[in-house]
Design the sequence.
């Protein structure tokens, strides 16, 4: 059995070679000819799964080791009897940690405070719901916006998009839906961008086109009055370098790129293919030990400082920002390939559940926050 696997999928060859003959390929180079005699295809979000890719091939199973599925024509797969699996939720903890790393970095940099702040969380799925729990433990007043979930639950706990956009911190965690009742394409646009108050923190780690990048760029060019964090861009990989020069923090679509998040995605698709084949899974990942895994938190510091020390110990978001900004200087003629190379060669990043702290002197509120973040005692 021939299995085509994106070469950037962690443990991809190791896992899927237990089931068949693996052929590794760059995700943007997977084409119809390559798939002629393949049984299974395992990709990431950069490979468009549709009729033009799969027509006339022998592919019977498609898996994406990502939480998003907007790159997949699910209707085509269903019509042609091709099994499909995604990795929903695989990197939700990693994205949550990215969001709060960015927030605490900006709070520290500008000598701000989280006290009495509001947070608009747009999209309350695997990631958004985790952000809600952390934000509430931190004492933030959370405004949740998710029309599909609101209809499903018939709950009054949700707010309008306008209300969420009016918060001190605004973060997007929605899928990319183009059209329909729950359209998210340019969900943030030239008409509602004015609702975001000057000085607010704006984060997009969902999909680039959820935010109208041109409209955001024009707002920043006029006023430069927001703290913007973009991990996703419109388009990718040939993103707008002028917009990058205007935002506070930029990264190459790696918010979910923890080792655990990547391996979870591989494992979920591998196990789905095993179920499809009626085979008992045999492969299990073995992750390396974490060095410098004890986090020192000074109980005499403010909560904001303690949070900054915690997140910066685990992940340096300024490092990703600095690497992205090379596209403004020495990589300005190599934007797309450089963007892809940053993702392919991304450094090892671990999640907070691999770390521990000394609880001596920490108040109960902070201990509850650390527990929610899965930091070990």
Sequence:
């Amino acid at each position: 059995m021939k299995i085509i696997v994106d070469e950037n999928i962690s443990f991809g060859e190791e896992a899927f070679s237990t089931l068949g003959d693996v052929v590794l390929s760059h995700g943007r180079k997977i084409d119809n000819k390559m798939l002629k005699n393949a049984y299974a295809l395992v990709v990431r979000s950069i490979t468009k799964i549709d009729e033009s890719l799969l027509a006339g091939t022998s592919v019977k199973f498609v898996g994406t080791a990502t939480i998003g599925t907007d790159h997949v024509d699910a209707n085509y797969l269903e019509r042609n009897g091709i099994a499909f699996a995604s990795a929903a939720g695989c990197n939700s903890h990693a994205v949550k940690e990215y969001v709060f790393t960015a927030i605490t970095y900006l709070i520290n940099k500008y000598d701000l405070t989280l006290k009495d702040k509001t947070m608009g969380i747009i999209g309350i799925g695997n990631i958004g719901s985790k952000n809600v729990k952390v934000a509430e433990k931190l004492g933030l007043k959370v405004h949740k916006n998710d029309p599909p979930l609101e209809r499903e639950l018939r709950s009054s706990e949700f707010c309008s998009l306008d209300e969420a956009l009016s918060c001190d911190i605004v973060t997007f965690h929605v899928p990319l839906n183009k059209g329909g009742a729950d359209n998210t394409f340019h969900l943030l646009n030239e008409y509602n961008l004015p609702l975001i108050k000057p000085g607010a923190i704006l984060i997009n780690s969902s999909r680039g086109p959820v935010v109208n990048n041109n409209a955001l760029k024009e707002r920043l060019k006029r006023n430069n009055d927001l703290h913007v964090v973009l991990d996703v861009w419109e388009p990718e990989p040939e993103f707008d370098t002028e917009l990058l020069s205007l935002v506070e923090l930029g990264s190459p679509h790696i918010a979910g790129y923890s080792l655990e998040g990547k391996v979870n995605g591989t494992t979920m698709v591998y196990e789905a293919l095993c179920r499809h084949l009626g085979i008992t899974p045999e492969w299990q990942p073995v992750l390396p030990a974490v060095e410098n895994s004890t986090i020192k938190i000074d109980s005499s510091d403010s909560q904001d400082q303690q949070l900054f020390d915690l997140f910066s110990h685990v992940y340096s978001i300024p490092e990703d920002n600095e690497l992205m900004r090379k596209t403004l200087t020495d990589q300005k003629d190599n934007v797309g390939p450089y963007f892809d190379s940053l993702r392919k060669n991304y450094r090892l990043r671990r999640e907070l559940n691999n770390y521990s702290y000394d609880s001596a002197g920490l108040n109960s509120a902070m201990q509850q926050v650390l527990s929610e973040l899965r930091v070990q005692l």
